[in-house]
Amino acid sequence: xxxxxxxxxxxxxxxxxxxxxxxxxxxxxxxxxxxxxxxxxxxxxxxxxxxxxxxxxxxxxxxxxxxxxxxxxxxxxxx
Length: 79
Hints:
Elements: E1 7-12, E2 16-21, E3 26-34, E4 42-51, E5 58-63, E6 68-72, E7 77-78
Antiparallel strand pairs: 1-2, 2-3, 3-4, 5-6, 6-7
């Protein structure tokens, strides 16, 4: 899936990159990341941005080596 979304912010780690669109929607690509919010379903590798869903709207993201965390639009920390 390709996206024409304009990213408001990017967060990059050792194995993946995630981007937030202005409305809080999140897209990720790279290796070893989860496409379904709050799930253990792992996607091994994606070269193109994939929407993470269902997920709340995020106002910020942080990507580490093995984890991706965010702050929701309601200011709740989510890992």
